[in-house]
Structures
1.
Amino acid sequence: MTITPLPRLAQTPSDGASLDPQDWTQLRAQAHRMLDDMLDYVAQIRERPVWAPMPQEVRDHFRAGIPAEPTPLQEVHREFMEYVLPYAGGNVHPGFMGWVQGGGTVTGMLAEMLAGGLNANLGGRDHAPIEVERQMVAWVRQLFGFPESASGLFVTGTSMANLLAVLVARTSRLGKAGRHRGIGQLGGQLRAYASNGVHGCIAQAMDLAGFGSGALRLVPVDAASRMEVAALRAMIAHDRAAGLQPFLVIGSAGTVDVGAIDDLKSIAAACQQENLWFHVDGAYGALGMLSPAVAPRLDGIGDADSIAFDFHKWGQVPYDAGFLMVKDGDQHYETFASPAAYLRREARGMAAGSPWPCDFGPDLSRGFRALKAWFTLKVHGADAIGATITRSCELARYLEQRIRDEPALELLAPAQLNIVCFRYRAGDRANADIVTALQEAGIAAPSTTMLDGKLAIRAALFNHRTRQEDLDALLDGVLRLGAEWTRKSLSVV
Ligand SMILES: Cc1ncc(COP(=O)(O)O)c(C=O)c1O
């Protein structure tokens, strides 16, 4: 028998065999420059505008086609410094107060670099990065007083964690067979309940889970924007009488608009009596457990069947770092585990360590999000994170008082946590223009929302770098721009 010799494969980088650098010394020097640039960026963030609109030339820079030829690393880094960094979203800056965004930390940034170097895939198998994620799950269990049998998982953000929670609740009601059969006739009768201040991703989760967003009932709120639990009970009774099947109640621990925390204890009691799944959307509020000032207001959160929250909001971990915790780990597993021959488990070797994280969510390939959260908690300590949470609530009260003291401003919702909604005493158009002008001038970056039919300037204080002087700059800007707007509108008349 004649054996055909195998073709010779390229061996060296210059033959294209590997993407590793050819000159490690040069690469190391460049890598240090890149690290220094990012450290400078964070250290000197106050000297920059909060946000800068992108000139057309910058946008155009990103329209070129896929590069076939190589570009030196230092050149691409230069492009990043010129075209990307100055036009980032602004949430590292202490003047950023829009939407619900954390400021990140240098610790988390460095952990991201380490995670990138390991290039770990946390879908499964037996390796130390998964033990880091398991330790994070254990810490979260401890935080909420959940039992050993509770399971947890890092995901992108709370929108995803809420979706996964709705899917676990679905399995709890329809059984594992529902995964094959679909929601069927019974699924069509299931109903979920949340306050009318709930985040929009809950309706979307109901839609994506196959129930339709119309299967979510919105419960009225009281004067403090908390779910009326008596109304919840009445709606459940009404739906049962109509032949429908209530199965899930979502409590909010920090609503997106005004930071209201539902009466979690009473909702938990209602769910227990009615045999309903109790999920908490604690996107940012759940980590209030770390703050002695906020934790008592979360009473009842430990009674939840599942909790969704983000480390990237009040936890200051860099994006993205969402988390889902489920009290009944078996239900969680039953909802997602999908055995396959190529994912066979063993007692020893790399395929050991079952169950794997991929058994608790839809992602098979998963990055090492846990590392930046683990570093953040270890390096700073949970108490320091809790202290920044407490301080952001104190800052919100300072802002609230300044607004109350200023006749040209109107407080639209009292600061329940760290969110303050107010407006310049003028119409919606004026307030929307004021917010845009503040952002474009790089002075401060609040966002807007609608409260009782009025457009509100919404300052959500999540950044651990924010100080009183940043709030003074916000109000000075609002007052000056508001006066200018009024003057201009009067001169047009
Ligand atoms: C109360 C609440 N729920 C859910 C979300 C969605 O979280 P994420 O943006 O991490 O998906 C947010 C975001 O601000 C929120 O405030």
2.
Amino acid sequence: MLATVASATLVGVEGQAVSVEVHVANGLPGLRVVGLPDASCREARDRVRAALMSSGFKWPQKRVTVNLAPSGLRKAGSGLDLAIALGTLIADGQAPWQPAARLSFIAELGLDGSLRPVTGTLPLAAAVATAEVVVAPASAHEATLVGRVGVRTAPDLRTLIGILEGRDRWPQPPPRGSYPPGPPPPDLAEVKGQVLGRQALEVAAAGGHHLLLVGPAGAGKTMLALRLPGLLPPLQPEEALEVARVHSAAGLQVGISGLSPRPPFRAPHHSASAVALVGGGGARLRPGEISCAHRGVLFLDELAEFPGAVLDNLRQPLEEGRIVVCRATATVSFPARFMLVGAMNACRCGADGSPGSCSCPEVSRARYTARVSGPLLDRFDLRVRVRRPEVEDLLGAGGPAEATNEPTHVVAARVAMARDMARARAVRANADLETSALERHATLGPAAKRILERRLTDGRLSARGLGRIRRVALTIADLAGDEVPLGEEHVLLALALRATGVLGREDQVPAAATFGKSGEGLAQVPA
Ligand SMILES: [Zn+2]
């Protein structure tokens, strides 16, 4: 007899509906799974057999063939266990077919027959073709985030069959925990001094600009970066759902207290593997850290310590907002639109890199900073030097910086205002403005034009740099509540916040040496 049960499998961060067809016929007893299952999927054989028997069902002494359709799609993970078990029971006449036909089933089976949660429940539940889905009780909150799909749970296979036969009722899904959404991000008021650093942080948050902080060890670069998430506006519901899908596919905990509106902040260590950062892995390609930072902040501390190959991998996401991972088994595109914040010392020894600040030879200092390539350095709209705070800043002795120690909520209000203005220009933040839109939205006043002309003529500014300066200057004007055309003060501050020579070398990139030259398969960089 033949039975068909609906389920889903994960491809990247997207779910795909799968039909599990089970055929039970006379022949040599055994179970065969066909239709491109991966290793964990093939292991379902052993789990399903044990789960069935320990739940008090008979294992059919016949030939059982399981086909996972569509057969061209590679199936990964253990989420098809329940559908395979149920299909076997229906095809063998041990469970009713009718009630199961209206449902999809997504759960791993324990050897004792219990339903267990699987990675990617959110995108999986979103992909099912039926109006209701059955998941493990521990996955219920996550599946509920989908919204349009009814969520049912059962603790184990035996109870589930009882419900389908009409002997039992669906148990109430576990109540949503009232877990607090974690401690709030640290407050900006705790940062003493750091006038330029604070300013850069505010502009970065308001305009979505990538930020590089360079300075000696202990100057407070990390302290500044950790305060960025608190300045960012909360995610829109559809963005929060997008983030939750990626996190679900990456195996992170999702949905315990509903959709989190907080932008993610990911700070992978420089010793993390390329796969952990970029994504990929075995048969099932998982999103990496850069995708987990989607719609939030990717903070790379000790930027120069990251392997060059890993930093090269940032090019595509910085241009396109996604990363394509190719493996022998599949090619998958993961979303990866993040704000990049880098922090680094100007010298390996941790000194601030200015002449005479340490005794390292010039050549070793240059070699260290050269690990951040010119094109990558060029991606940072904001590059600032952070110095160790002055003694009076630390002691709060009413120094000149005292008045600027604004708390997070004050700065965040200005950032929200600037983001509103960007939305009126049909982008999320000014960093997303196309070059063509700059003419319309970031017009230059005569004084601003003169300053930029001079920089362009003497070669201190490239055509691409000009676009970046205009976007940053527009953000600065937005924060100050000023109207365009952009004035001298906006452009001068933008130039100061994008210091050239921040790494003690000429960091202008010749126009030809852009990211994504044709042949690299990347998008052309807008000027
Ligand atoms: Zn040194």
3.
Amino acid sequence: MDLSRTLAGIGAALLATALLANPVSAVPGGDPAAAPSGGGPAPVPGGGQTTRDFGNGPERNEIAALDDAAISALSARALTADTPATAWTVTRRKGFPRQNELPVWPVNPDDRSIKLGLIPYHLIAPKLNALQKASDRVSAEIVGKSAGGRDLYLVTVTAPESAAEAARQDRWRELIEEDPAAAKRDRSLKAGYKTPVWINANIHGNEWEGTDGALRVIERLSTATDAATRDFLKRSRVYVTVTNNPDGRVAGTRANGAGFDINRDHATSSQPESRAVRDVVIATQPFVMLDEHGYTGTTLIEPATPPHGQNYEYDLYIKHALPNALGMEKAIQQLGHPETTAADIPFRDYAPGDWDDWPPIFTPMYAIYQGAVGHTVEIPLQVNNAAYNNLPVEELQRRARINTDVAAATIEAALTYADTNRGTLLADQIEQFRRGWAGEPSPTIPDGFVDGFGPEDRYSATFPRAYVIPAGTPAAARLVDHLISHDVRVTAARSDFRLGGRHYAKGTYLVDMHQPKRGLANVLLEAGRDISGLVPQMYDISGWSHGLLWGATVDSSLRTLPRVSVTKVTRAAPTGAVDAPRGRDLSLSLRDGNDVRAVNELLTRGVKLRRTDAATVLVPAEARPEASALAKALGVRFTAARGHDRGTVIEPPVIAAAVSADELFALKEMGFVVQPVSTAILNAGFDLSAVDTLIVSSGLSYSALTPAARTAVDAYLAGGGGVVTRGATGANFNAAARVLPVTATAGRGDANGVVTVTNEGRIVGAGSPAHSFIYSPLWFTGTGVTVEQRYGTTPLVAGHWLPTDAGTNGPAQAAGQPAVVSGVTAGGGHAVLFGTEPLFRAHPKGLYAPYARALLWTAS
Ligand SMILES: [Zn+2]
């Protein structure tokens, strides 16, 4: 029997026990230590380490983010749209090599790679510079900067090409995507197109050896003198993003410098590291890609278990992914290390749900939508976290050497697979894009299509004929620019039109689903699916719909393409305006994160703002120049204030925040100035007296406060200080500090997805979207509060949320229950408690403004 499978089973059983034991009780009143920890334990496939940390790991609820230069620098981007125009693209009109002298970074003796005997970040540029000098097969360039400002390198290894030859390769690559039928007929393309393979290394900063293994392969390819290698490079282009996470490589962290897991960010693109590799995969259109990770005890090589993403052309994927994985397994066996005698191939070895490829947030899954056969590879031997600190250096370096061997062997094997099967890989990439253009349904895959393919592997989506996105809001513009930056084609109607009984104005955006990357378009825009009943557990988020969570109206037309002439959109049209006669006071409705950003910018500039309700801000007529500038920069719309509106003055809110890194990032995106706090910071005597509102969602435990700090918190609350909480940490604080008289009940810790909500309150609930996002959801019972939002009657639209074995704490129990409540504290302050996840990983942009309204209300 396969050992890994046994271990996976044991891991799953332990997990199930832990999940049932843990997060299902109501929040006890007094002792937060016993209260519901929302974040259930992570599934541990293979019985080894958790390599796909669940829900961003403990950081999400237990560690408060500190103010961080990386976050500040990044969030200066604000919520403005993505910028496809400045994204990296393949250089035109140049042959290969395209060599660049990479800037060399200062020596950093604290680089965590050094202890492992691996290459520190500061030696990568010198190494690549030397390789370029030594070989005309190697080109290196910078394709972006990390959150912490470090260079992201792309290496291309290929036989030299003249400018004309490189241009022909570009034309062929475009032809494959733009006109697959013509590409299929083109014999010179078939003979001459260089097989593109992309290796992404070190996306998790403390999973180091992908970088070292890739560099070994680059070096071999660039220096080998044998005919086979020379011929291989005439037929191939090997692209390597040498480290996708230099901040984490240096610091020995999974996350980048802004605290984000980049391998969860591909559908959101909030981080520069994920945007850089998105641009690389679009520009290079690889047939095969590997994402090198660690450490699973036994080497793990995808393809994954079900549920499989329902928008893949899965037949075209699995027919290559499985044999490629088998080839990689053979390659590590041939290394001869006792630790590499076999690999875990989840598709072959694991139970459904143990290692799925459902969400498009992982690099290889994202890459499938861009035409690649994508694989996560997990090298075996742990050298990070506790092992890094506790094992002898010799043992760490021994492990790192084996891991490097495994990384290099999997890369070599994948190159061999791609080269050997270049004809069918080309034909199948062409076929993927052809089906998209033709609007053909994805074919039903028969049992046994590859070894082990059965009914449990069969997933498919019904593609609508078109999506329709009314223009004019910052949310619509943001979504459209996001789609375009992901190479989804968007057009705009040149005149008004009707569809499905609805009238749409000229300028309305259309996503014609007859397009090469329709799978990607659909996986972003569709609602998604409730998969709770299909598998017992999932690895990470199971719902993410941009159509439902990003604040834009997204309609779909199942069968009809609107009869209207269109123009191609390369950038969403501006949406900002000041629609008011000169001399009139202005009104701004807080419907989008950019509206909030505009308010914060005006406050920063000393403009005297007032508000008439939680969602409406008045701007004095004399601030019109500032308003005009913000309308232009942020796409927000000011209208004329009604003459009799007076409102109450808004002071710049003083916010203390015990929040996770993603929340801190989202708060800064909206322009809030926040002072990070935590249990430790309050215990060190942080002065709360000037604070208007305190956010508690991560790393602040009332019971862990010193008596003095507790007294300070009590005094803050007694004095009318505001409070906003999120999740279990927030609910615990609410109970322990007696903020609002409600109790929280927790759904299963791993429950997540898109839910329906009904809006009732005038703060969070005022005109908010009918959908929200949950992760370890809570609901509230008690009296004396206002219900802002309730879970819908059948709350889960898309995602995974099971009840306990006893049938409790599931979506049926949450139905109709308060998801967000507001109220007045005993001290007279305002408080709002969230059982939902409005800022999760900076993703659900449409939930930002409701959250911000809560923040502004509690600060007032
Ligand atoms: Zn990883």
4.
Amino acid sequence: MSYDLIIRDGTIVDGSGLPRYRADVAISDGRIAEIGKINGSAKEIIDAEGHIVSPGFIDGHTHMDAQIFWDALGTCSCWHGVTTVVMGNCGFSLAPCAEKDRQRVIRNLERAEDISPKAMEAGIKWSWDTFPQYLDTIDKLPKGINYTAYMGHSALRTYVMGERAFTEEATSEDLSAMKRELRGAIKAGAAGFSTSRNRNHETPDSKPVASRLANWNEVRELVGVMGDLGAGVFELAQEDIERDPERMRDFLGRLQRLALDTRVPTTFGVVSMRKAPHTWRPYFQMIDETVAAGGRMLAQGTSRWISSLLSFETAMPFDKTPVWSDMRQLPLAEQEAALRNPESRRALLEAAREYMTKPDRAIGAEARKPNFDYLFLFDKPLPPYRSIAQIAQEANKDPLEVIIDLALEKHLKQFFIQPIVNEDQDIVLGMMRHPRSVVTFSDSGAHVSQIMDSSIQTHLLGHWVRERQALTLEYAIRKITFELASFWGLQGRGMLREGNFADIAIFDPETISPTMPTLEYDLPAGARRLKQKSVGIKATIVNGQVLMRNNEHTGALPGKLIRGPLAASA
Ligand SMILES: [Zn+2]
């Protein structure tokens, strides 16, 4: 037998959660031809001795909708073993969109997800009105990894209602038009429908994004479209109910009824918060009850805190004060000079100290007023990290001085981790152990200069599996492959079986880890973003072709648009 590719002598962790075993994998025509002892030849052989061979990772929560137009590879996810992503989360898709509404659709995205409007204006090649036309565009684009896309509620509302989408509830005509568009999108292969009801999602002028103007009936009617068609996943960014048990009960009850009435698979992020440490539990309880009653529901978790990466290259908490704001306009070297000058340093410290006494309002992943016990020096790729409070105490120094001195040591190229949620890593572990949660929620493609969570998969494997030995490799791999493929109905992916698509990650379990992030100005229009790669991944294979070898792009662009089941049967 002659194959396209043989992976020799690897240890297979196949995505199912079953124990590992040694075997070769043969690939032909983009599919796994055989797993076992393989005697045939191949055009290419990868020696996987000492390495794990697993399904390529699947990320169910990304915002790659804009970057797919300028970044064929799918960074930074593709550097962490990810071979398939779901985009269009939280109501933010670029379709449907009439030509006159392009600015409005950008407005929905830019602050809520921190994607530069200049980069979007320069980088997105608009050629669609409707969602089916958009899918055809994505289908034709060169792609490193596989994509599947939701239709987002903010875009849908804007398409149907124009400027009214940002100010009004939908009329019955609006609603029928939205339902018609959604039906068309699901039939053309949309992954489902997403929405946001979350206060973190604002436009640049501090107004709610369009989907937040929808009443619950509008959401129910739209999700009902998918229920009637028997296809599509519903994803939502939740309502803000955290400290109000009454509102929480009301929201969870509505969500459960919707999932059970429509039978639409429903998914959302669940995080814990230091200030309300038990609010994540009712979510899991509701999910368990929903599943017990016959619904399908999945919690999107992550493998660590979700944090703002503070630095003088990105954002610092005090940037809003006039003294800091003036200094922060300067080139980095001049900022360094200002911080080394005793007089201007004193003024900056004074402004920061004063800022610490006032309330502030940050949304999403914006830098917020620091709590020094929960601000960490990011000095290596994996935890544990020392807090600024701890370092200050050891050095008997003022925490603000510590931050400035540490930054100066690195010529201001020092990041600090400011967790926004999931501060407690034991709770994170507890959530990862829950059978109704997966590790996803990277927000890859969004918050590009604020957070860098495209590395949650390599963090999972390096920190929790290897260093902490808190999860088995088999379990961890299933949480980033098969469980996602099953929920989203990604046929033939997420598990290594003969006949399945050859989406494969080959990595060294002894070394796999993220590397340190950097800030780069490589987006269209020179916009900035955080970039993070990994070590320990020998090869990433997408649809049978090697996309990455030792995390270097091979030149292949084997990614595909994955359409939903109704498109496949059309
Ligand atoms: Zn999101």
